[in-house]
Write a structure and sequence with these properties.
There is one protein chain. The chain has eleven helices and no strands. By secondary structure, the protein is an all-alpha fold. It is globular.
Length: 253
């Protein structure tokens, strides 16, 4: 029952709310993004309270540091993306400092918080409540939630932005984030890592004037985009298997 309720909430809520709220506002697209998060974050906090899972918000410095160590793979990759974007961009005209700071904070805080509360915070812990916490269920939980995280991006089809490669890569990202959360048990750590990742991949639009971070992803999966994004799946899967290797899986229990 919990999973049916979650899947309905997660996918229908995004379709009805996330993809249509923009139509209610006529101001700048990036402001709309911030308004979305301002509305969504209190709703998610209320949902967490109703589900009696407030414990997911407990901050422990030791666990937070551990999440960063376990998630070092994501930190390294997040440092590479901005360099690639700067080297490959066709423009050299920079956005204003306030614009860069504003959009960095919106992506870092908004995207990381909302998606991690739903996927790692609510769904993973609900999975544990239902199936228990053993080595097998931890791995099964990470795979299930990781794939669901990727498939939830299927709602982009509503806006005409469906990109199969995006779904594949987000599945890989979801697997790694699940493994990090399972090992560290610190939601704030994965919120930060997720936000850092999104800022990195959107850095081109955040930094440079002619690019828009809210521009839709390519709807057509050309061979070029497939070759560009698909190889990212391999390190994600390797990282996932490494993080949940036999000698470390007991840390998740």
């Amino acid at each position: 029952m919990y999973f049916k309720m979650y899947l309905i909430f997660n996918n229908l809520f995004i379709i009805i709310f996330w993809n249509n709220i923009n139509k209610l506002f006529t101001f700048d697209t990036n402001i709309k993004r911030a308004v979305n998060y301002i509305i969504l974050i209190p709703i998610l906090i209320l949902v967490v309270k109703l589900l009696k899972k407030e414990y997911i918000f407990v901050f422990n410095k030791k666990d937070f540091i551990k999440s960063l160590k376990v998630g070092m793979f994501m930190i390294v990759v997040s440092m590479i993306f901005p360099v690639m974007n700067i080297l490959t961009t066709e423009t050299t005209e920079l956005n204003s400092i306030p614009y860069i700071v504003f959009n960095t904070l919106v992506v870092l805080i908004g995207t990381g918080f909302t998606e991690e509360v739903v996927c790692r915070g609510i769904l993973m812990n609900t999975f544990y409540d239902y199936f228990g916490k053993t080595r097998k269920t931890v791995i099964a939980c990470c795979i299930f939630v990781g794939i669901e995280f990727g498939l939830s991006h299927f709602v982009n089809i509503i806006g005409g932005n469906l990109n199969i490669t995006q779904m594949l890569v987000t599945c890989g990202l979801g697997l790694v984030l699940c493994a990090i959360y399972a090992r560290s048990k610190c939601l704030w750590g994965v919120i930060f890592l997720h936000g850092l990742w999104d800022v990195a991949i959107m850095s081109d639009g955040i930094i440079f004037l002619s690019n828009n971070i809210s521009s839709p992803a390519p709807a057509v999966n050309t061979l070029e985009t497939l070759l560009y994004y698909s190889p990212l799946l391999i390190p994600f899967i390797i990282c996932f298997l490494f993080l949940l290797r036999k000698s470390k899986i007991d840390e998740c229990l």
